[in-house]
Amino acid sequence: MTIGLRISVQTIFGANQGVPQLIKLLEKYSANATFFFAMGPDTNAVSIKQLRQSLSLRYFNYKSINYRTILRRQTFETDCKDILTLAKENGFEIGVDRFNSTSWKNNALYASSNWTELQMQRTNSIFTKLSGEAPKASSAPFWQMNRDAYRLNQRLGYNYTSDTRGTHAFLPIFDGEIISCPQLPTTLPTIPEMIQGKRMEPDFLLQSTIEHMKSLNQLIYGAHAEIEGGPYYSHFDKLLQHWSNNKHDVVSLQQYLERSVDNLPRHNVITRKIPGFTNPLAYQGSEFLG
User: Global pTM?
Assistant: First the structure.
């Protein structure tokens, strides 16, 4: 079975510490992935409490928290170019997250057109400057979206985006408007959902993911460089080992789109509350038959 792997990189710590570790781990199992990078200032360190609530990072050690606090004034543009290059040169697809993931999480759902466009255009501009080419894929932090963000996915020329949660790839319909940019939703549960603020052992998380896989026909896993590349590294190692042992092909989302998806159905997009997250998420709704 083909498994698409989506890795969000939303902090300086995640970029400089998590990404290199994840690259080594993925290469160990001959797995591929798409890394989605935020491009603006790392303001997550300003609100440790908020980040814990959003990503269930309460088990980060003090060293990593202090690292992010010290570097909170640095930006991806000035300090992470080498990490983008590292991922790209090692054969991984790279795309954009948003300019400021914390601000996007807090404001995107009800943001104005101007605010939304500024966030996304600035992200694209910095990514193009750092990588030498415009991004072809995008993801929304914490699966937060609005009408203008869906429209900009078309205007900015993305091959696909991964902004939603759901069960299979689809073309989104938002308030009756067709958005002609494929959505590759995260279909498997994330670590914050599974632990819901509690300390869980890697074996429990592994079995939980395996159980969820049994009920799905399309598999896309959403990881965070700050989590799977940090305190839950051993869990991710075991998960990749399980996939490798069972001959699952772990690929980038572009590869997933090319290999696994034909004649995408149209589905309405709704917002839905999921345990483990403070905000309702963009979620794949019913099929649009109109």
Answer: 0.90
